[in-house]
Amino acid sequence: MIEAYNNLLKLESFISATQQFEALVVYLASQGACLEQHGNIEQYLQTAGNELLRRLLQGHLDHRATHERPRQSVTGADGIRRTYCRQSVPRRLATVFGEVTVTRHAYQKRGHHSLYPMDQELNLSADKYSDGLRQRVAIESSKSSFDETVRSIAFNTGGAVPKRQSMQLVTKAAIDFEAFYYVQDKTFRECQNTDKLAFPSTNILCK
User: Fold this and answer.
1) Dist CA 65 CA 69 (whole Å)
2) In Å, how far are 45, 57, 61, 63, 160 from 92, measured between CA atoms?
3) Do the Cβ atoms of 141 and 166 come closer than 8 Å?
4) Rg of the chain taking only CA atoms, in angstroms
5) Per-residue pLDDT of the chain (207 residues; tens, 9 = 90+)
6) CA-CA distance, 132 to 96, in Å (whole number)?
């Protein structure tokens, strides 16, 4: 365990996370912390713990960024080949732990939109909200108002989603949900009219 921790310290991307972890341990072992009620310790850990998780996620993203190698070209769905690579392009990502920065390469061609292979690998949306925050918004908005959703997310996570953006995320989720089941229904109907239909993603045969 000690050897694994020492190896972790050698990973530059995770230095900030290890510093936060050490600060947590130092405080929890301090005389001041030992005089606190458990509720105060719990609240401290929720806030400082979220920050630790945020730094770990940031460290992971930074680690991946350092290992992203430039490609000769990237071709998009439009069939256009992007040959110019602009390195270390940042974008923000709001998560349940707080905001982090994703640094990745952009592949460009004049007159066409840029492509980011790392965004696809991470399955990032066009907006800045993570899957975790989207899920929280969907769950909370199904139980209460959008105002309460905003308050609940701010209180229970390290993230934040304004009311207007919460409404937009729920609307998009509903559209994606309907589109998914439209495809499923269409596939089922096609399957009924076909002797054999293969689903490459699952290797399931419908006979």
Assistant:
1) 9
2) 25, 13, 11, 16, 13
3) yes
4) 23
5) 566 556 655 689 999 999 999 999 999 999 999 999 999 999 999 999 999 999 999 999 999 999 999 999 999 999 999 999 999 999 999 999 999 999 999 999 999 999 999 999 999 999 999 999 999 999 999 998 999 999 999 999 999 999 999 999 988 877 655 543 443 444 444 444 444 333 343 333 333
6) 6
